Amino acid sequence: MKTGHGMQKLKIKKPGWKIAVMAIYFVVIAILVTAGCGKEDSGSEGDQATGKSGTVQDQNTSSTGSKPADPQDIGMNVGDNFALISDQALEEAMADMSSLGVTWLRFDMAWDLVQPKDANHFIWSRYDRIVAAALRHNIKLLPVLSYTPQWARRQECKENFQCAPADPVKFAGFAKEAVIHYAPMGINTWEIWNEPNIDAFWRPVPDAAEYTELLKQGYMEIKQADPQATVISGGLSPAENLGGRIAPLDYLASMYQSGARDYFDALGYHPFSYPAL
Question: Which backbone phi and psi does 236 adopt, to 5 degrees?
Fold first, then answer.
């Protein structure tokens, strides 16, 4: 769970990583539930992104046939930690994960770090090195496109990077440029935002209709840049209906009511049990 750029410190110790693999929530393929977006035509975009078994298609699938991802694939989530650590620490972390059999890495590709000043300038260097390190260790990548630079935030939460974008089209432009930049490097699976059903990650308050518009705009731009890309909806927090939190089933129902049905290939869900073990 992301608390702020640089606020989490990642301790790389080999004995602890076995515990971390179990404790960190993300087993990449096993918990991605196919959206069932209602496309009945087997040639639709949504069906092209999934295998017959109902799991998200592997990034290495050939164009000649579907190859469902192995449900035993193991992934880790590191939030924005890898964007901020040294090259040496990054290499050590990738080597540790590879030695444990990790094959997927979910990480924040933060809009506010890529376009901190305006819509016309991009800084990809932080993420270029993550992609290069992952390729060296045969680890596939799931970037989470999220978090708003100050110039693109809504006025009521302008000081917080978890603030919803004032204009979803500007976010979609960032998503498209990310795909154009990284698809040639082998990335074709993308997640749009993180836990939009709680106010910790969608400020000022979660709103399924607003998120659905962001999802729609992002999906269309990603597919335009890479028609074979798999688009995953923002992983939903297993929250209760309390304060600034909306339970995932209620939130998902509202997403469908807002027209999300045809704008994601797989549903992201976080099966946390915190604070219960």
Answer: -85, 135
